[in-house]
Recover the amino acids of this structure.
């Protein structure tokens, strides 16, 4: 039963990551992978899944942020919440 729940969690995180920034994608994929690994290590316990998910989300966000950064570019957000990248002002 726990394997089914873990599989569903990974599916949900994968679908949620389709319209995200690289940082958000990394966090979602890391959380899903970490939860699956934590469940396997803990022998199906919820504690391992939660701890693995939290660690995976943090690590995935860091990796995603490193991929997202572009030298010489600035990130802007307009009043509607849309994000875009442009050259930094001099």
């Amino acid at each position: 039963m726990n394997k089914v729940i873990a599989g569903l969690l990974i599916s949900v995180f994968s679908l949620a990551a389709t319209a995200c920034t690289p940082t958000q994608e990394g966090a979602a994929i890391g959380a899903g992978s970490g939860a699956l690994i934590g469940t396997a290590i803990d022998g199906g316990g919820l504690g391992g899944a939660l701890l693995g998910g939290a660690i995976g989300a943090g690590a995935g966000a860091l990796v995603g942020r490193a991929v997202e950064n572009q030298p010489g570019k600035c990130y802007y957000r307009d009043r509607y919440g849309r994000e875009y990248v442009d050259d930094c002002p001099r």
The mean pLDDT is 76.
